[in-house]
Every structure is written in structure tokens, then in C-alpha cells.
Amino acid sequence: MRSSGSTGIPGPSSNRGILLSENAIRILVAKPGLDGHDRGAKIIARALRDAGFEVIYTGLHQTPEMIAEAAIQEDVDCVGLSILSGAHMTLFPKVLQLLREKGADDVPVFGGGIIPDEDIDELKQLGVREVFTPGASTEDIVDWIRREILPLA
User: Fold this and answer.
1) For the segment 90-139, what is each residue's pLDDT rounded down to a tens digit?
2) Which helix (H) or strand (E) holds 129?
3) Number of structural domains, the chain?
């Protein structure tokens, strides 16, 4: 599934961004659980691709096991989880746990979606590196990845 910059979503395939390194940062964008709305995840995936990152988009209805396995198989530099269903306090920690169990605890996880402010600190204490809520721009997310993930890759 490695196809430089492919998100698996329709749209222009040109990379308008600048490649950050010879080997672009690989990001898995996933929709855990039964959440059936993926427009935001597709917008993020496209913005990341256009910024020069290599994006693997898993599609809807992914289990934590499927996400952790895909992260390992695709050898990603980080995982972005998108959730609107309210199950973030169950699904995000489960993905983190599975990555740890599979020896991939060095893969940073960030998330976004409808996540109440009071849950963000707890998610960060559990190991989620950053949480983006409605109103965060795609530029904010790209800048955060360049600042926080690029040095680790």
C-alpha cells in the first residue's frame, strides 16, 4: 500500500507541499470504532499529503487491533486517530496499549474530533501526544507534526 503520498481518497494527486526529508514522514490516519463520519479525517489526510507527508488512511470502522497492526505493518512514524462518537476514552487508550504490547510504544499517537476539554489532559497522561479539537486548522496539525514528529523520525 506504499504509494508515495497516496491517501486512498479521491482528489488531485499532486504534492503541493515540500518533502520534509528523503524519506517522507509516514502517518497512519485511522477512524476507530463505529463512528461513521470520516469527512474530517479525509480532510486531514489530504492536508498531510499536500504538506509532503506519506499518508495511509485506513477507512471507517477500524478496531484498535486493526489500527495497531496497520501501524506496525506500514512502519509508520505516527498514528492519527479521529473520533466523533464519544468513545475516545476507551479506544485511544486501547490503541496505545496494543502498540506497547507489540513493541511499538515509540510510535507517537495523536488524535482529534469531538473530545471534551476535561478528557484531553487524561488522554495526554495516558500517552496521547496531542489532541486537536474542532477549530484546529490543518496548518496547526501540519506544524505540530513538523515540530514534534519530524525530529523523532
Assistant:
1) 999 999 999 999 999 999 999 999 999 999 999 999 999 999 999 999 99
2) strand 128-132
3) 1
Amino acid residing at 104: A
The predicted model scores a pTM of: 0.85
Span 51-100, pLDDT tens digits: 999 999 999 999 999 999 999 999 999 999 999 999 999 999 999 999 99
Give the separation between CA 55 and CA 61, rounded to whole angstroms. 18
Q: Nine-digit cell at 89?
A: 476514552
15 within domain boundaries: no
- Does residue 16 lie within any of the structural domains? no
- Enumerate the H helices of the chain as residue ranges: 39-50, 64-73, 88-101, 117-126, 138-148
Between the two ends of the chain, the Cα-to-Cα distance in Å is 20
Of the candidates 51, 6, 75, 69, the residue with the CA atom closest to the CA atom of residue 145: 51
5 within domain boundaries: no
As a residue count, the chain comes to 153
